[in-house]
Amino acid sequence: EQWVAVAVRDDASEEPYFLNAASGMDAMIDAFRAAPAPPPPAERPCPPAVGSWIEVLWEVLDQETDEAKDVWWRAKVGAEKSEGHSLDGGEVVVRAWTLSYVGRPELSEPDAVDASVAFLSPRALLDAESD
């Protein structure tokens, strides 16, 4: 017994995935359909609440191959920094928060790393340490 599930991207291209009854996909699909949809980006809080887990897209350079790849990195939102972050020689000060990235030993970052960030929108942030 074989059936096809189709994923559609950008309303243009279809990529078929062939699955069988033993794959357990039925349960996964039912669980996905039953889960509440996340709110659209405009309704997501900016900045996220302290203690929230977020994922940040990083471009990571492989030292051996000298190739860049995109990596989603999980992080926890920490407290707002009282001093904020200065831009343009101190003419502009934006609110800043501590972000604690989880360790990623497979990417040569075995320990958690704290960073100072400014949330620019629900989908964009500024790494205040490398602006």
What does this structure look like?
- The protein has one helix and seven strands; from the N terminus they run ββαβββββ.
- It has one helix at 25-34, and strands spanning 2-9, 13-20, 53-61, 68-87, 92-101, 113-121, 124-127.
- Strands 3-4-5-6-7 form a five-stranded antiparallel beta sheet, with no helix packed on it. The chain has a two-stranded antiparallel ribbon with strand order 1-2.
- A hairpin with a 3-residue loop joins strand 1 and strand 2.
- It starts with a strand and ends with a strand.
Describe this protein with a few key phrases.
1 helix; mainly beta; 7 strands; two-stranded antiparallel sheet; 131 residues
Please give a quick description of this structure.
Helix content is 8%, strand content 52%.
Blueprint (SSEs and pairs):
Blueprint (H helix, E strand, L loop, with lengths): L1 E8 L3 E8 L4 H10 L18 E9 L6 E20 L4 E10 L11 E9 L2 E4 L4
Antiparallel strand pairs: 1-2, 3-4, 4-5, 5-6, 6-7
Rg, rounded, reads 20 Å
In round numbers, the mean pLDDT is: 76
Share in helix: under 10%
Largest sheet: 5 strands, antiparallel
Q: Give the spatial strand order of the biggest sheet.
A: 3-4-5-6-7
What share of residues are in beta strands? over 45%
By DSSP, the count of extended strands is 7
Specify the overall morphology. globular
User: Uncertain segments of ≥5 residues (pLDDT<50)?
Assistant: 1-10, 14-19
For the termini, the CA-CA separation is 55 Å
Query: What is the overall number of helices?
Result: 1
Secondary structure class reads mainly beta
SSE sequence, one letter per element: EEHEEEEE
